[in-house]
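Lab notebook, bench 4. Still working through the backlog of constructs that have no structural model yet. Next entry is a single chain of 136 residues. Request: give me the C-alpha cells for it.
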Amino acid sequence: MPATANFKESLLPLEKMRLLLPEAKKNYAQAEPFPHVYFDDFFDNNVVERLLEEFPGENDIDWIKYYDGHQKKLANENEQNIGLFSRHFLYSLNSSLFLKFLEELTGITNLISDPSFRGGGLHSIYRGGKLGVHAD
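Model written out:
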C-alpha cells in the first residue's frame, strides 16, 4: 500500500492484524516477566518512511522538554505541530478498530483512546533517556 496523502486506504495493517491475533494473544498471555508482545515489520514500510520524513527535529517545533535524572525527552501534545500524514496515523491508532484489536489481544476491556494526544503525541527520547514499563 503506498503511503499517499489522500488516505484512500487504512494506515492500519488490518489483514495482518487479523492474521496475527490468534498467535499473538497466546504469546502475550504467556510472556515473562509480564504480559507483552511485539511485532516485527507490523506497519507497511512506506507508512514508516512517511512518518520519519514528517517527524520534526529538535528545533522545528515548540517541544515540551523533559531533562532530569531519568528523562531526556521531547514531547508534543499540540496537534498543529504534527504533520498531516502523521496526524492521520495517530488518529488511526486511536480508532475503535485499533482499540478493539488491542482489547482482543490483551484481554483488557474498555480501553480509552487519547484523541488530545496528552501523553500519546510525538515523543523523542535521547540516548540515556528512559521509557519504563507503564500502563496509562
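Notes after review: The CA atoms of residues 11 and 89 lie 6 Å apart. The helical segments are 14-30, 45-54, 84-93, 96-106. Flag for follow-up if needed.
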